Amino acid sequence: MANKAIEFNKYIEQDGRLNFKGAPDEIFIEAFKKIKLFSKPLSEHTVKAYNDDLDSLMRFILEKDILLSEVNVITIQEYQVYLANNFATRSLARKIGILKRLVSFGYSTGFYGFSMLEYIDKPKNVKFLTSETAEKGKNERRRLDLEDALIIIDALEKVVITKKSYRDVLIKRNKLIGFILLTAGLRASEIVKLKWSDILIHRDRRNDTVSFALDFNGKGNKPRKVPLYEKAVEALYAYRNSLCTTYSLYTEDFRGDDRPIFVSTSRTSYKEDMPHMSYDALYKLMKKAVRIAEANERVTPHWFRHTFVTQLLEQDVPLAIVKDLAGHSDIATTNLYIESMNDDVVNREYSKVDFGI
Fold this sequence. Notes:
globular, 2 domains, hpI Integrase, Chain A
């Protein structure tokens, strides 16, 4: 890393501007990542997606037997045709967006002699609430009916087929994952990073009540607080008790415990702290449950998030509160969910309107 920093210094002008004219491709790419792509905190999932996008571009250029610095308008056009023929709409839009950012950065820093932006198609505006793999001519909403969601949550428990001593831990872990997905609306990347110390317990002595919430840093390291549903709390304690029974390093009191909530039991001894469950493991777990439940094969963990937000809106939770619970940076994102509310709900609400006629 230190050597790269020294290399970057060679391309800084006296006035502080970057000038990568004649720079090796690897130096330019590293600078692009550091200055443009990853200058702000991003989720592991986003970082992986962006790196995959760059890898797609570099593989294409390698097959053309040219350098990145030798990319021209013809290469740009051919690459866009390649993307259109090999990637679904949402991935295509993201990869073209990365291409535009790279070309723009290259022109502004002298890596390219002229701007090629006008030759890059504008990324198609994809409505993320619609499945990109739905049948042609149909709009499939990426959300679940509550009945279907609960069937998949039950199937998450059935995914566990091991007879080993930690079987009960995995069954209760998976059930809790399902409840958190449905009733808290967390992203999969946020769920796998949760720590026991992220659980906030509030005791109201006046009303003699206890409430639970997840208090954590979500996407973009943005602080977020989401109440825990009663059934999720029950599943949480059942899971913790199972950990205590199976692993001697766990106690019933999880306050101040900075270990991950959702753990991986693979390659772990009973005397070790277990690592957190990976994003890929959670994704594969959901796919197995979907197959067992004989549900829509396109369902992913994120469908539960869409279901969570839509349920809040359909049950008259104010838009501003839904925005905060979902961790949306812009209320315009929350507004998109209103489009996914089914006709029955629209008709029900419309019937309440009195036009005085």
